């Protein structure tokens, strides 16, 4: 096991400098900190944390690592986490990985300075999760399939929800049904695409690559795609967008270009964020229980902290919410 002296040698600094840097002391230059923390990651060094924390049975804190803190999806999820955590007198420390902002929170996990963690971020490497998960630091993963000791899973029925969305469009008589997906590394995106494919095949249709488009789960990407599609000769007559934010971006672009929803193009989203009920027209969507997702994940974490270990993966149901866009 690596020691603080090994880190000092690898970074080319003194042991005392490493010790000060690990406390995030501003006296250490950023360039030096960078070298030290790179050495920490490379060697797998795990500081013991503050002695006071070691003497305590619990830190009364939990980490929540998200890919992004923006958007209505994350706000409802965080509300669920906070409601359960506060009931147990715990303080959730919430961070996102966008722009490298999650680095400090990842260090808290490496130092065992929290009692457990909830992670919803496809960009956090499996190797990191394997390194930090332990009896003293259980992890609950959202929307991710990794089978590791001390790691527990909660997800929604993404494939079933997508299937229901596309089946609904087929029942409405639509022939050219497009799919607008999110990031390729996202498991929920892959499962939603799988549900899209299965619904088409089960109804005697084939998947046409011309009607499969890539976005990034943001309204901006949906809007850009909508502007592009508006002048295309391969315009679909219905679209299943893999989340509501992209669907709302599409809706805005089509409206600007004079296309009517659902007369010209029917539109279904996924997540059923609150805004979907207030768009014009109101957006048909697949309801994903974001608040409940946060609640269940946090409840599982506390079950583990209270001594349970045999906890099966949990899959929450989704529901088709039919509104004016179809």
From TrEMBL:
Segments forming domain HTH lacI-type: 2-56
SUPFAM superfamilies: lambda repressor-like DNA-binding domains (SSF47413), Periplasmic binding protein-like I (SSF53822)
SMART domains cross-referenced by the UniProt entry: HTH_LACI (SM00354)
GO molecular function list: DNA-binding transcription factor activity; transcription cis-regulatory region binding
Domain of life: Bacteria
InterPro entries cross-referenced by the UniProt entry: HTH_LacI, LacI/GalR-like_sensor, Lambda_DNA-bd_dom_sf, Peripla_BP_I
Keyword DNA-binding applies: yes
Keyword vocabulary terms for this entry: DNA-binding, Transcription, Transcription regulation
Protein name: HTH lacI-type domain-containing protein
Species assigned in the record: Ferroacidibacillus organovorans
Lineage, uppermost ranks: Bacteria, Bacillati, Bacillota, Bacilli, Bacillales
């Amino acid at each position: 096991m690596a020691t603080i002296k090994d880190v000092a040698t690898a970074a080319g600094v003194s042991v005392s400098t490493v010790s000060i840097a690990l406390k995030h002391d501003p006296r250490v230059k950023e360039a030096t900190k960078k070298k030290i923390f790179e050495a920490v990651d490379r060697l797998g060094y795990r500081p013991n944390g503050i002695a006071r924390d070691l003497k305590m049975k619990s830190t009364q804190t939990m980490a929540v690592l998200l890919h992004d803190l923006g958007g209505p999806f994350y706000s409802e999820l965080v509300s669920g986490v906070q409601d359960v955590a506060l009931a147990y007198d715990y303080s959730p420390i919430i961070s996102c990985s966008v722009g490298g902002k999650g680095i400090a929170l990842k260090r808290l996990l490496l130092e065992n300075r929290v009692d457990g963690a909830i992670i919803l971020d496809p960009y956090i490497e499996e190797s990191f999760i394997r390194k930090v998960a332990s009896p003293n630091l259980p992890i609950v993963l959202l929307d991710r399939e990794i089978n590791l000791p001390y790691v527990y899973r909660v997800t929604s029925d993404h494939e079933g929800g997508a299937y229901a969305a596309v089946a609904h469009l087929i029942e409405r008589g639509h022939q050219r049904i497009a799919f607008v997906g999110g990031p390729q590394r996202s498991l929920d995106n892959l499962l939603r695409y799988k549900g899209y494919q299965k619904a088409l095949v089960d109804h005697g249709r084939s998947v046409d690559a011309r009607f499969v488009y890539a976005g990034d789960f943001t309204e901006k990407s949906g809007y850009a795609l909508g502007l592009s599609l508006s002048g295309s000769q391969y315009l679909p007559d219905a679209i299943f967008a893999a989340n509501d934010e992209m669907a709302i971006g599409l809706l805005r672009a089509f409206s600007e270009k004079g296309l009517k929803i659902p007369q010209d193009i029917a539109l279904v989203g996924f997540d059923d964020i609150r805004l979907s009920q207030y768009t014009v027209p109101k957006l048909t969507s697949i309801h994903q229980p974001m608040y409940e997702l946060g609640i269940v994940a946090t409840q599982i974490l506390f079950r583990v902290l209270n001594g349970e270990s045999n906890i099966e993966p949990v899959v929450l149901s989704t529901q088709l919410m039919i509104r004016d866009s179809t």
